[in-house]
Amino acid sequence: MKSSRLFILTILLTSLFSITTVQASTIYTWEDEKGVVHFSDQPRPGADTINLNIPEPSNSKANSADKSQTTNPQPEQTKEPALPIATISLISPLHEQTVRNNEGIIDVSVVSNRKLTKGHNARLLLDGKPYGRPQTKLNWQLHNIDRGSHTLQAQLLKHGKVIASSDMITVYLHRASILNRQPPAITPK
């Protein structure tokens, strides 16, 4: 019962604070024979008193804002919302993924939170060196890559300057070896 009483009191106080025209300073509360808690602004025998200090509503801020707008009209500032920090991430292949391709092809996909518009490009680094030219697409197909371990990293460029870099990942390319090929089986005629 105490928790319901506290809950009802909280609701009542919240509603009183949200209504600025109500200026009651004393609230009376009591519990009836069924255990229901009541609140009123009228005194009743056996009721507990709750004193509230609600300040008078003031319009001084609103009035001063109105006065400042009429005396000093300022042009509206058209600020563009700040863009989030640029990010770029490799999504394919995954870190330490093994790619099996006898032609040495690795497909690379990247995602960025920026559109690659005028002045923005993406660049791929293979083993720390740029692979091809910067481009406006976020996909690459690497050709004739030697077998073994390679590092990949993507960079987001704005007018040639790096504004974001992905984490560097390692991929392992497996290609069939000519040295280990078995001669074709001879079939008797």
From TrEMBL:
Region ranges (Disordered): 39-81
Pfam families in UniProt: DUF4124
Superkingdom, taxonomy of origin: Bacteria
Coiled coil: none
Keywords: Signal
First and last residue of the signal peptide: 1-24
Residue spans of biased composition, Polar residues class: 50-76
All copies of domain DUF4124, residue ranges: 19-65
InterPro entries: DUF4124
Protein name per the record: DUF4124 domain-containing protein
